[in-house]
């Protein structure tokens, strides 16, 4: 693949002529118009393309070959940060998305109460599991399609967009009214699922696998984007290490690394990273200080009685206090 950066004074007609000529060479062209520059991504076999010939054109500033396997997720391909609008709330660039809700949808009263309380505290989106991948087959597996219906009731009540996890392609029929589809850590390299989501026209929240590298996460994002859906939100949720004091180990360095390599928004899941509610606050503030674009945090009205992941869930009041602290951290670093 090759990147062609155009000069600021290039005209629409000049760009159209250049794109038509490039396509005549048997290549596809992806046009990315940012605040400060316009980039053409040349997709296909560019090995025989004469870079000096293209660089010599009056409207071309520079030409760069991309050697990394991930192309569309690459910041070289799209210099400006991607910004996605989810129900009026934006994520990416300088926006900080607050996603909160229970690990699992348990009943209508539970999800509606939590939705009302997290919205009041400042949440922009409601999370809740309907289809739950659990390590033990005897644990609560979620309410499935009924769980999504309850999420939609909470959305109607509060206006909060919803995000919930998709485990299998066969479940897509239930996700028509879901605002953001989540791909969990276990499915990060379920390539057929990723391909199917590439054909969807809605944001995908892609979680990093328990033992996957940053570049493997980006390659999974590339699977979705290659299918035509470029609305991908990357999520660092902790990786498995030799440490046993916490459920996983939060890789806070993934935030600046991913933001350097990619233009996609990066959020943190501090709840799954540590598995202990009292550690969620410091990890969240560390993520905010590192420049993350948001968090997805578990909140339950009665954590001690939660059917899933109660020990790592904040109460709505604790979430409200956390939101205020996040604002202070962001004010300090911006």
> How large, in whole angstroms, is the Cα Rg?
21 Å
What is the makeup of the main sheet?
Answer: 8 strands, parallel
Q: Helical proportion?
A: 25-40%
Overall mean confidence score, pLDDT: 93
Poorly predicted runs: none
> What's the total number of strands?
14
Name the strands of the widest sheet in spatial order.
Answer: 13-12-11-10-9-8-7-14
**Secondary-structure element order, N to C:** EHEEHEEEEHEHEEHEHEHEHHEH
Strand percentage lies at 15-25%
Shape: elongated
Structural class: alpha/beta
Kindly report how far apart the N and C termini lie.
Answer: 35 Å
Secondary structure tally, helices = 10
Describe the structure.
This protein is 33% helix and 19% strand. The protein is of the alpha/beta class. The protein has an 8-stranded parallel sheet. Helix 5 packs across helix 6 (214-226) and helix 9 (277-290) runs parallel beside helix 10. The radius of gyration is 21 Å and the shape is elongated. The model has no long low-confidence stretch (mean pLDDT 93).
Summarize the structure.
Helix content is 33%, strand content 19%.
């Amino acid at each position: 693949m090759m990147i062609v950066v155009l000069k600021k004074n290039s005209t629409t007609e000049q760009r159209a002529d250049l794109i038509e000529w490039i396509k005549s060479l048997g290549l596809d062209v992806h046009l990315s118009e940012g605040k400060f520059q316009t980039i053409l991504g040349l997709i296909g076999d560019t090995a025989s393309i004469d870079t000096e010939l293209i660089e010599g054109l009056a409207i071309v500033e520079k030409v760069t070959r991309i050697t990394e396997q991930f192309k569309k997720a690459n910041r070289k391909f799209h210099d400006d940060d991607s910004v996605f609008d989810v129900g009026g709330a934006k994520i990416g660039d300088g926006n900080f998305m607050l996603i909160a809700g229970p690990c699992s949808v348990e009943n209508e009263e539970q999800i509606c109460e939590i939705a009302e309380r997290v919205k009041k505290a400042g949440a922009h989106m409601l999370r809740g599991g309907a289809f739950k991948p659990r390590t033990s087959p005897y644990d609560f597996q979620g309410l499935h399609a009924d769980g999504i219906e309850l999420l939609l009731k909470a959305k109607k009540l509060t206006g909060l967009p919803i995000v919930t996890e998709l485990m299998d392609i066969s479940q897509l029929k239930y996700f028509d009214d879901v605002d953001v589809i989540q791909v969990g850590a276990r499915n990060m390299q379920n390539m057929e699922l990723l391909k199917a989501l590439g054909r969807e026209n809605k944001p995908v929240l892609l979680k990093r696998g328990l033992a996957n590298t940053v570049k493997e996460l980006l390659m999974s994002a590339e699977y979705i984007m290659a299918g035509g859906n470029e609305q991908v939100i990357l999520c660092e949720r902790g990786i498995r290490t030799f440490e046993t004091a916490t459920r996983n180990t939060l890789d806070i360095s993934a935030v600046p690394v991913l933001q350097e390599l990619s233009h996609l928004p990066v959020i943190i899941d501090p709840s799954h990273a540590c598995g202990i509610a009292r550690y969620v606050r410091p990890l969240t503030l560390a993520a905010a200080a590192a420049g993350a674009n948001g968090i997805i945090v578990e909140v339950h009205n009665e954590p001690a009685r939660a059917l899933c992941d109660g020990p790592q869930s904040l109460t709505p009041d604790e979430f409200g206090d956390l939101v205020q602290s996040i604002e202070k951290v962001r004010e300090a670093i911006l």
